[in-house]
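stage 2 :: seqdesign
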């Protein structure tokens, strides 16, 4: 189970998952993806859990994922990780008819003021906008601006573009202020449990991290479950996957019409909020166990 030195302490799933794997008879080790002494080919499978320092070391992390894929089995698999690390996947989901948060994408080299003006013109109802890099996690570099602060927002977009980031522009969906965001966790493509995450972009410009305190258990509604299933199905179809995803988290916020919209699809290293659902770690361990059996069957049959 892959983490890193800085992330393990804030991975609240790991202790539960370790116990559940042990109970399921799976031998596990906690490893840092940055540890040069680990022989990754020793493992039947390598599970990405909390390698969250990758955000500042993206190319190093991708090279490591490629290496691991060469020598053993990576979960989720490399093409999934590659696609999912950049929020431009929202474009693919939208193209497949999945309801996603309306998003404008700006590439490095574009004129930030022009891009922002065009986005605002296309979203006249948006009183506030959200600017974020397409690669990011833990609310890092996500900012909220009132419509009247177009100049400040453009400067911020320019700053992200200058460092080489692609940028997403979205209307600020204010349902999050009273209803929060819903994260739906799935194992093997099957819904397991959900949490509510409170709004993290505060009105005064403070950006909160998605700590445990920001979360509470929540039962996902029928329409949320349908939206999440549509997102996972679209991802599987887009990536031409043969098996359901071992794990996946779909984050939803309701739009102005009350319908759930996909904010994020987390298929690489999502926090799974296991402390909020007692049986979830066991469900995940059983799903892992079934994959390990399949791997061993294939090895016996001489296929890798
Ligand atoms: N369009 C939006 N409307 C309202 N809140 C948003 C929007 N986009 C992001 N946020 C807030 O910012 C947080 C972080 O943004 P998110 O897209 O989830 O990126 P990250 O990958 O950093 O988690 C969300 O949990 C949510 O509270
Ligand atoms: Mg998020």
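stage 2 :: out
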């Amino acid at each position: 189970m892959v983490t890193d030195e800085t992330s393990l302490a804030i991975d609240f799933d790991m202790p539960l998952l370790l116990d559940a794997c042990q109970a399921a008879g799976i031998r596990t080790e906690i490893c840092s993806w940055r540890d040069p002494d680990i022989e990754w080919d020793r493992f039947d499978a390598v599970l990405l859990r909390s390698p969250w320092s990758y955000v500042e070391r993206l190319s190093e992390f991708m090279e490591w994922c490629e290496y691991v894929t060469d020598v053993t089995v990576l979960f989720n698999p490399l093409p999934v990780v590659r696609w999912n690390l950049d929020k431009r996947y929202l474009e693919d989901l939208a193209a497949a008819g999945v309801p996603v948060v309306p998003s404008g994408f700006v590439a490095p080299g574009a004129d930030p003021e022009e891009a922002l003006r065009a986005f605002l013109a296309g979203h006249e109802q948006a009183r506030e906008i959200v600017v974020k890099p397409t690669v990011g996690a833990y609310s890092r570099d996500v900012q909220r601006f009132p419509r009247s602060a177009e100049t400040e927002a453009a400067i911020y977009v320019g700053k992200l573009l200058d460092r080489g980031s692609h940028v997403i522009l979205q209307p600020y969906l204010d349902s999050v202020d009273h209803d929060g965001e819903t994260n739906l966790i799935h194992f093997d493509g099957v819904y397991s449990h959900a949490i509510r995450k409170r709004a993290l972009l505060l009105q005064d410009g403070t950006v909160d991290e998605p700590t445990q305190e920001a979360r509470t258990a929540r039962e996902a509604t029928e329409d949320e479950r349908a939206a999440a299933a549509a997102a996972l199905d679209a991802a599987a179809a887009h990536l031409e996957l043969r098996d359901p995803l071992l794990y996946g988290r779909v984050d939803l916020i309701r739009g102005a019409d009350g319908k759930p919209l996909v904010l994020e699809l987390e298929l690489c290293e999502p926090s799974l909020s296991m402390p909020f659902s007692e049986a979830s770690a066991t469900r995940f361990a059983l799903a892992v166990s079934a994959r390990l059996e399949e791997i061993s069957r294939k090895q016996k049959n001489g296929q890798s």
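stage 3 :: structure notes
- The chain is about 35% helix and 20% strand.
- The radius of gyration is 20 Å.
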